Amino acid sequence: MKSHPMSPVDAAWYHFDGPVNTAVITSVVLTRKRLDFEKLKALYAQRLAKFERFRSRVVERGLPLATPHWEEMPDFAIEQQMHHVALPAPGGKAALTALINDLAGTPLDRARPLWDVHVVDGVGRGSAIVTRTHHCIADGTANLLVARALFDASAEEPPAPAVVQARKPATPGLVGRLFSPAIDIAERSYAQLRLAIDTAVDVVTHPRQSAEKAAVALAGAGMLATELLRTPDPKSPLKGEFGLAKRVAWSEPVTIKDIKAIGAPIGAKINDVLVAGMTGALRAYLKKRGVDVDRMTVRAMVPVDLRPPERADQLGNEFGLVLLDLAVRSRDPLARLRLTKAHMDELKRSPEPVAALALFGILGRVPKAAQDLAVRMFESKASVVMTNVAGPPKPLYIAGVPVDRVMFWVPYPGDELGMGISILSYKGSATLSVIADARLVPDPEWITERFAREFATMLAAVQRRQQRKTEPRAAVGRGSARKTAARGAARRARAAVPH
Predict the structure, then answer these.
(1) From CA 80, how far away is CA 38, in angstroms rounded?
(2) For 1-39, how does the pLDDT look when each residue is reduced to its tens digit (9 = 90+)?
(3) Under 8 Å CB-to-CB from 75, ≥6 apart: which residues?
(4) Mind giving me the DSSP string for 205-251?
(5) Domains of the chain (ranges plus CATH)?
(6) Does residue 179 sit in helix, strand or coil?
(7) Which of 99, 221, 296, 421 is deepest in the core (most CB within 10 A)?
């Protein structure tokens, strides 16, 4: 059977699975029209054919230290990975949530390729596609390859070819950033990305690097070491003893137009506003649970894409992590936005993700016990995993059916973190999705509902400030008009008096 070893970084993610927290990305596509399961199954069989990892299982072999390998399954069949189910009547969001809860708490079968799909009928008049993919197969940016293969820009678009095209730098298009990580990396040039990934890989294997690469590596390593020496986030409803069950929730969409209006006065980007809204919802939830949020430290582990363009057509993991201080202590929503923007701007200039990626490469070559120790040290500094994805502004289609909504849940593997928070924009709106340990956070829907309220509060605050700025000018204008009218009345009165 054909097999080859995993890359060290992918092997690290394969081993990051905790006893009850697995490194599995769960996504949901909703349609208002019912999907044809047989047609969808044929589409997946054809369009996933070029991705070897989707028909390979993971086996560990080698001495003295067994390492994970991709082994292509000789009896692979798409029917073993795709399942057709229906919600119990009357269906609806509650029934769909219960199904996703069950799937999110169930590990993937390690004897088979580490992904599966559940096509769900009875979601109103439409369907849902619930997909689970282990992180060792692909990170967020790599998943855009799968998205490009499966989704179309129109109902009539022909199937994607089942062969790998010539490699070339990826150009962001309709589905270009459907599953990309959080921080706005558009400001990073391709040259910077290439330098970052080359440094992350070569810093260990090639000691004679250019001064520029060495400086980036040393700066990143120094910052990462500083982060790991910080005081861990305190125990809270977000951290503690885990159970087996998971709970998921998702918000009503908020419009990108309103998000831009909120950020415009201070130059905040869409990501800044989204993270500030999420932070406000988290602050309110912690306060509800009795936490003294005014003295609380809450950090999020955030992925930063480091994939160079020459590897844009390959699956796998090529991203680093940074620790983002969430502004949960700020009571005023606009002050919280300003502080969030400052923290996000600082992270965009940080070389820390490069060092984190290099660390993952090292961890992929050591025994799992050593990996677990390093992961526990890193994750102890945070309370949540958070990612924010800029999706396509125009509608997508799957098997000829328009996609109404898309959501996903980021995993939070390990033994410390109890919640993953994902934000995805699609068709001009953004949705917040939360997955959490059912014992720690039994009511994540409270956070997603509060998310929409936070945006309403921020938008109203911005509109009030703008109104106060325009009122003085309007008052001056009204005063000048009154004076002009009075002078005119006086002239008319003088003309009416006989001389």
Answers:
(1) 14
(2) 677 888 888 888 888 777 777 889 999 999 999 999 999
(3) none
(4) H-----HHHHHHHHHHHHHHHHHHTSPPPPPBTTBS---S-EEEEEP
(5) 3-463 (3.30.559.30)
(6) coil
(7) 421
